[in-house]
Amino acid sequence: MNSEVAMTSDEQVFRRVFRFHPHAWRDENEAVAASVLMDVAEAAGRTQPSAGDKLSVQGHAMSLWLRRVIRPDLAETVASLALGTGFMIALFHLISFEVLPVIQMLRYFSEVEYAPTISLSCGFQFQT
To answer: How many domains would you assign to the chain?
Structure first.
């Protein structure tokens, strides 16, 4: 007699989401994780995991595989560099595309005879 309980087709769909996880993780956690996904989908009125759930599970699988390949101290260094790089890119974008155009506009309008004034609602009111 087969010791495994027969799975429904819905349960197979939810277990298939975890196919990219390492075998050791799946043996230990797949049943619980699939049942949690099924409960979430059932509460939302779905019969399959959402695209966001699938993406989240695949991201988790990728992180598990990367932990096997990359040393933890190297992973922390890479994460710090990525965070710093993202911050610098955001700062560059803020200065280049948000702050500098406003400064240039204010300089231009300060040289024009009928310079508009910026009101609190960010609309332009022309001086007469």
So the answer is: 2
Q: What is the pLDDT of residues 1-57, one digit of tens each?
A: 343 555 677 788 899 999 999 999 999 999 999 999 999 999 999 989 999 999 999
Domain match, 10 and 65 both? yes
d(CA 30, CA 15): 7
Q: Please, what is the end-to-end C-alpha distance for the chain in angstroms? A: 94
Cβ pair 11, 54 in contact under 8 A: no
**């040393």: which residue's tokens?**
71
Residue 106: give the domain boundaries. Answer: 71-128
